[in-house]
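ESCALATION

Customer reports they have been waiting on this structure for their group meeting. Please prioritize. Original submission:
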Amino acid sequence: VIQMGTGKLLLQKGKAS
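Update from on-call: job pushed to the front of the queue and completed.
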């Protein structure tokens, strides 16, 4: 579950950047 959350966070961070 943590891995999925991390991936989503990374994706959002990249999109925001």
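Sent to customer with the following note: Residues 10 and 16 are 10 Å apart (CA to CA).
Escalation resolved.
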